[in-house]
Each structure stands twice: as C-alpha cells, then as structure tokens.
Amino acid sequence: MGPVIVAMSCLCLLFFLYQFYKLFDQRRDQHCYLVHYVCHKPSDDRKMDTKFCGNVVARNKNLGHPEYKFLLRVIVSSGIGEETFGPRNIFACRENSPTLQDGILEMEEFFIDTLDQLFRKTGVSLQEIDVLVVNVSLLAPVPSLTTMIINHYKMRDDIKSFNLTGMGCSASLISINLVQNISKSHKNAFALVVARGCSILLTNKRAFKNRAKLRLKCLVLTHLGASDEAHTCCMEKEDSEGRHGVYIGRNLPKMATLAFTRNIAGIAKKALPLKELILYIMLKYTRKLATLNLKTGLDHFCLHAGGVILIEGVKTSLGLSKHDVEPSRMTLHRFGNTSSSSIWYVLGYMEAKKRLKRGDKVWMIGFGSGFKCNSCVCEVMRDLADGNVWGDTIDGYPPKSIANPSMEQYGWINQEKLMVKNWIDVYEELNVYCLGGNKKV
C-alpha cells in the first residue's frame, strides 16, 4: 500500500501543479499590449483658419444677430489654432446640406490612411487580425463601417467584428475595454480598434511584449445614463424648426463633473499606491481637507481635448500643472476636438516630445454623451520617441502664444453691450465670395 499511496500523492501534487501553471499561463496571456497606433492628418488644402470659419458663419442665412454673436465668440475663445482641418463639403459650400456619401467618403479616407500605415509599420498581416472594433459616434451607414473595412481589406470570414455608434468622445476606451475582455478568452489574438481618426493594433501575444508601446494596466468605465439629467444633457436631435444637430445643455458641466468624480474614485483604487489611499482616508475621516496626490501613481495625464474649459477644469480639480495639460491644449490648438480619437493625438504629442519613458504610467481620460467618463492607465513598455502625426510641426510647439489671431478683430464680441458699428464691420468683413464660384453670400 505504501508505494501506491506515494504514487497517488505524487499524481495529486502534479495535478495541482499543472492546474496552477495553467492558471499562471492563462493570466500571462490576458495582458493587453498596445503594439502601435496611427493618427490621421488631412491634406493641407483642408485647413480652416479663423477668417475662413468666420466666412462659413456669415454665409449661413438661418442666423440672426444673437447667433452670429454666439458663434463668433466660440471661434475667438475656442483655443483652436489656424491649422485645424475641416470636411470637404464645407469647402464646397455645402455645410448646410451634407450627404451620407460625404460622411462615408470621409471615413474611408481616415480608415485607409491610418490602417495602411499601421500594417506597414508593424509588419502584421491582414489575415492575422482576429478582432475588429470600429467606433464613430454620428455615422451609422448600412452596411456598417466595420463591414466597409472588412470588404476593402478582404479580411477573414471568421473575424469578430463590432461597430459602435452613439457612444460619444469616450468611445475609444470602450472599444479598448471590449478588446481587453475578448483577450481573456482568446489566446494569441490580434485586435484592431479604429476610433474615427486613429487606428490602434492590440494583442495579448507574449512575443510582442518587447515590441509594444504600452501595456494596459487598468480601465474604469463610468456611465450615468440612468439619470434623466445626464441622459439628456448632450443629444443628437432636431430643433423646433426641424434642423438636425447636436444639443448641448447648460447642465453638461455638472454631469461631466459628477461622472469624472466617480471615475476617479474607481481608478484611484487600482492605480495609486496603498500608502496614498490610506493617507487620504485618514485625512478625510479626521475632517481635514483631503486631496489625492495622483502623481504618486501616475506620471502623464492624457486628457480629452474637448475644449479649453474642459481641460482647464480638469487641471484645476486635479491640481495639475501647465506642463501636465500642455499635450491636450496643444492638440486642441493643432487639430481641434477630434472626438474619440483625441486622446491618441494627445498621446502622440507626448511621444513626439520624448516624454514617455519605460515604466511611466499614463492616465488616459475620455468624456462622452450619456453621460460617460471612461479612463485607463497604461504602462510605457519602452522609451518612445516616434514623431507620428506631429513629426513635421512638433518643434514649433508649444508656440509663444496660443491666443486666437482674430482676438484683436473680434475680441469685442465678448462684451455684453455691442455697438452697431461693430456689427457693420463684421458684416462687411464676412461678406465674402463662396469658394469656387462667384455667388455672393
């Protein structure tokens, strides 16, 4: 009996060791690596300076004096520079009558440019892609944009494809979360995330660990959609006169603050050291002013470039420096609000400035309708210095001044009392000829 018992004991031990190894091996394959990403840069003939934007406003016959005042104020105070880009239908004087085909052609241009570069730079074959996730909020053609990409590149018929719409400016992190969850049950998989103007290649293959730029550490999604106030603060809808557009309520900052606060609570538990969390709790319960020092666990802050007020609001609430928010401010200045892809343009700025060093932690934060605040923390896998979409302009950033060049001309627009002469000057200045024709507008 003795040898039998010993043999059985050895078998049991081997079985448990094997199960432990399987669990360990499975967890290793659940890591989500960001191999590479590419952001789209349109051609120079689509640049929209402030004067051109003013002309677009002026030729809109549906606007009265209050609307002109509001739009010019937005242009002057936007924080957007003179080299941002616009869609082709605006240059064709068709901003009031965009077609479905306009949107599809624009997305084709974005997708093909970024995906071609991504495959070329990584050396990954089209036939190796196992998962495809596309997110574009305000365009949902049939067949889907995902199908359009599969057709163009003749991808495998067993590819797992997902097309996300209506998810707002935080959608790229929702896509990343989807890939992360799929990676837990599919070994050695490649996934593509196409977030409007950016394409991202991810994998859980251990062989790509040293080639990857980032490794996903943790991700937190916050959705306040159960609240009617949050649900309706930002909506695609028609106004009382049947004009289609996006409505933004005055309560949006309130909902954004609430979503952000709850998201921070979730991300802090996962990203900050235990010592900082204990200190925060002790201060809070002794009725002292308690603030989290996020820099104890985070090195870089990749904020959605949704606007000056948003960026400055996050800067103030988190106690960040001008240096911390520089990438987001410069992205807004150079490219404007690029929706769900904006955080990747911000990341590109950090990389082009050679800020990202091995072991650094990057906090990426996105806001979106619903209302949602999504964020993730990534670890930099190696020193990064790719010029990417910023390559030809990075040496000029930050500029000496990011003040709008038309501030002197239209700065009076922010005054409550406006003189009639000011409006006459505006109408004379903006009374321009439509591009490509001789019809005065």
From TrEMBL:
Keyword Transmembrane on entry: yes
Catalytic residues in the record: 169, 223, 300, 304, 333, 337
GO cellular component terms listed in the entry, alphabetical order: membrane
Catalytic activity: a very-long-chain acyl-CoA + malonyl-CoA + H(+) = a very-long-chain 3-oxoacyl-CoA + CO2 + CoA
Organism: Handroanthus impetiginosus
GO BP term, example: fatty acid biosynthetic process
Record's protein name: 3-ketoacyl-CoA synthase
Pfam family, one: ACP_syn_III_C
EC id: 2.3.1.-
Annotated metabolic or biological route of this protein: Lipid metabolism; fatty acid biosynthesis
Similarity section: Belongs to the thiolase-like superfamily. Chalcone/stilbene synthases family.
InterPro entries, alphabetized: 3-ktacl-CoA_syn, ACP_syn_III_C, FAE1_typ3_polyketide_synth, Thiolase-like
Record-annotated Beta-ketoacyl-[acyl-carrier-protein] synthase III C-terminal domain positions: 298-379
Keyword Transmembrane helix belongs to the record: yes
Domain FAE: 26-195, 197-288
Key words, A-Z: Acyltransferase, Membrane, Transferase, Transmembrane, Transmembrane helix
